[in-house]
Amino acid sequence: AGTGETSAYCEPCSTDAQCSSGACVAAVVPFCAGECASCPGGAECRDATTVGGHVARVCVPLDLDCTPSVECTDDGHEDNDSWGEADGISFDAYTDLAVCPGDGDFYSISATSAGTLDVLVDGWNADTTDIDLQLLRSDGTSLRTSAGISDSEEITTCVDRGTYGIRVWGFLTDSGPYSLLVDLTPGSCCSDDGME
């Protein structure tokens, strides 16, 4: 809400004063409670602790969660939910991909020569979503993982000729759109040793 405006029921907040009800409920994602007189379906009037530290009788969702449920639509590479179902891809850029809650995506890539393999995933909002990346050996075991909290993940490593797997997944139940770039620069490359 802008200056002088207050937020309505279930809108995000950080102070009690931001809410028209005067109550910003202390939750994982704080939200404005509603007035008990106008409590909608799926909500109840009850005592709730506000971010200001007081208890108020207000209208809140039954599960105390105002985060919208997001419909997740699988992309055209499904069903690639396991290493055994990995979708074979080429060295290229892929857009309009999506990872759904608890439904990681697996791809396989064949390196026809040794070289430097670069895998990049990006394109999500890091404020609301955490998508991670893993490079797998041909037997499905982990070779490298990139699991930060920014809006992209990247793995660059030396590989021999062979088949490798790429796993993209949402942290916990995170989901969202992403793009994937896979590139191989043929030739010998230098890997850091254990003293680096």
Features:
0% helix, 4-stranded antiparallel β-sheet, 196 residues, mainly beta, 5-stranded mixed β-sheet
How would you characterize the overall build of this protein?
There is one protein chain. The protein is mostly beta strands and about 200 residues long. About 0% of the residues lie in helices and about 40% in strands. Strands 5-7-12-9-10 form a five-stranded mixed sheet, with no helix packed on it. It is elongated and about 70 Å long.
Strand order across the largest sheet: 5-7-12-9-10
State which percent range the strand residues make up. 35-45%
Total helices: the number is 0
Report how far apart the termini are.
50 Å
What is the average of the pLDDT values? 87
Query: Which stretches are low in confidence, meaning pLDDT under 50 for 5 or more residues running?
Result: none
Shape: elongated
Structural class: mainly beta
Q: Percentage of helical residues? A: under 10%
The profile of the biggest β sheet is: 5 strands, mixed
What's the total count of β strands? Answer: 13
Order of helices and strands: EEEEEEEEEEEEE
Radius of gyration: 23 Å
Short description:
With 196 residues, the protein is an all-beta fold. It contains no helices and 13 strands.
Secondary structure layout:
Elements: E1 24-25, E2 31-32, E3 43-49, E4 55-61, E5 87-88, E6 93-99, E7 105-111, E8 115-122, E9 131-136, E10 142-146, E11 152-159, E12 162-170, E13 176-186
Parallel strand pairs: 5-7
Antiparallel strand pairs: 1-2, 3-4, 6-13, 7-12, 8-11, 8-13, 9-10, 9-12
